[in-house]
Target: Aminopeptidase N
Amino acid sequence: MSGILAPQVHALTDTYTPDRGDPAYVVTHYDLDLDYKVSTNRLGGRAVLDVTVLEDVRRLVIDLVGLRVLKVAVGGTPAKWTHRGPRVVVTPPVPLPRGTRTSVAITYAGTPGPARTPWGEVGWEELTEGALVAAQPNGAPTWFPCNDHPRHKATYRIAFESDSPYDVVASGTLVETRVRGSRTRRVFEQQVPMATYLATVHVGRYVRRTLPSAEVPVTVLLPATHERPVMHDLARLPEMTSLFGTLFGPYPFADYTVVVTADDLEIPLEAHALATFGPNWLDGRRRHERLVAHELAHQWFGNSLTPEAWSDIWLNEGFACYAEWLWAEHADGVPAATSASTHWALLSRLPQDLVLGDPGPDLMFDDRVYKRGALTLHALRLEVGDTAFFGLLRDWTATHRHGSVSTDDLVDLVDVHVRRSHPRSRARADAAAARARDLLEQWLWGTDLPRLEPAAGAS
Ligand SMILES: [Zn+2]
Model:
């Protein structure tokens, strides 16, 4: 396995999702072989997890919600298990010493549905005709057994058999399609490390369209009846990918898929190299184009660079929100500075009790995380100047491509870039670095809304 997957020891599960994940092991690869019947919403199959054990263990805890385990084997030998709530506790036939690499095979079945969480229902969702997975933050175990933590990235192979009239797209590249009678089996391979929450599958009666794009192939799956409004509202996606490629660095995946469901959806959501919209967000009047930009930006910020922990959620949402403002500047001539001052004014009238760098589970998807996160980036841009700021963004996405990131990683990289912009004076470099650090400290760890103004020393 590559260095990206080198296991690190972490003592705790994620404090925002304490009933998910087992820090005693990592999964480096998931092999899912699944069978789904649309009319009964019946899902069954087998998951094989390639596991590396990080400490001496007598048991492994695996996350699985709402589905029934039928059989477990560890390293090919049947193993005992208990399943309570979201946790499957597997007892291997022999204790596993630290460093053991083995496989855990789980046969399971049931009628999947969303998990009820503090953030609403997440995970598997049955549609009027078909199904989807929208798993952020902890819905992945509603459709496959996993070690559910954003830091645990793995490769995947997903074989998915379903009723032939339905189109299916899952995370990864389609490598095989086989029609047998009324059933079609498709195999998807994901060779880029992916977090569990970003794994997805979509089943529906869709037609496929492609967008002419110079750089990134874009495929749209949509209900035939919605073609005109949807394609109108997505028409500027190629231009968006090209703008973001210039500002953020190369698009991190081979392609991009947008799935538009027939049912209205509460919010759009990102997955790995994919985004999902309800038709209510793409109604032919381009009223929600900022969200098209937002979900696309997550491919860099969230999906390629995935938070180490949910407390770092602003690294997803602040960046994606700032990308909305950059798009508005490019496409509609609304300067990012105008978006920033508008949202600064709105935020200043809201309660100032949120710590951006660790908002707590209840506030992790609070709109203030998005807006204060974007404002933090704008404040940093004003402080360091455009050249250093966009150089930093591109370095950020290149350095941590397909990896995991923390707020500390960003603060460290800011320091490097600020110093680099003062190559001839150590004293000026130190002073500029201290100013940038203080600025980030206030925005990330304070609660009061800092003023938004260019620093005296900024270029
Ligand atoms: Zn988002």
Notes: The pocket of zinc ion is lined by residues 294, 298, 316-317, 320 (CB under 6 Å). The two ends are 44 Å apart (CA to CA). The longest strand covers residues 25-37.
